[in-house]
Amino acid sequence: MINLIGNIISGFFVGLIARWVYWGDNDMGFWMTSLLGIGGALLVGVLASLTNGQGIREGYNRAGCIGSIVGAMVLIYIGNRMGWHF
């Protein structure tokens, strides 16, 4: 349970930094910002596990904070291109 709360809190801060760095209007609440940060970390973690030869189920590959922020920014970009306004 503590790990889940820690992931939500760190996801919030990663999403908050990604929203601050990314240009444009990105009005989101606490939960959308948290999901954005967690999604960015998952996106970069999956890409990193695919590039280093490990399978997705062979271990947990934590992405760094900067990688998570970049992943969250990519998700914002994709969402804006698809017409989703958070």
Supply the key terms.
globular
Show the helix and strand layout.
Layout: H1 2-21, H2 30-51, H3 65-81
| Count of the domains | 1
Helix content percent band: 55-70%
Mind describing the biggest β-sheet? none
Task: Kindly estimate the percentage of residues that lie in beta strands according to DSSP.
Answer: under 5%
Which term fits the overall shape? globular
In DSSP terms (H or I, runs of 4 or more residues), the helix count works out at: 3
Count of extended strands: 0
Mean pLDDT: 76
- The H/E string reads HHH
Which blocks of ≥5 consecutive residues have pLDDT under 50? none
| Class from secondary-structure proportions | mainly alpha
- Gap between N and C termini, in Å? 28 Å
- Cα radius of gyration in angstroms: 13 Å
Would you give an account of this structure?
The protein has helices at residues 2-21, 30-51, 65-81. The mean pLDDT is 76. The protein is mainly α and 86 residues long. The chain has one domain (2-21, 29-81). The protein is built from three helices and no strands. α1 crosses α2 (30-51), α1 (2-21) packs across α3 (65-81) and α2 packs across α3 (65-81).
Q: Can I get a quick summary?
A:
This protein has 3 helices and no strands.
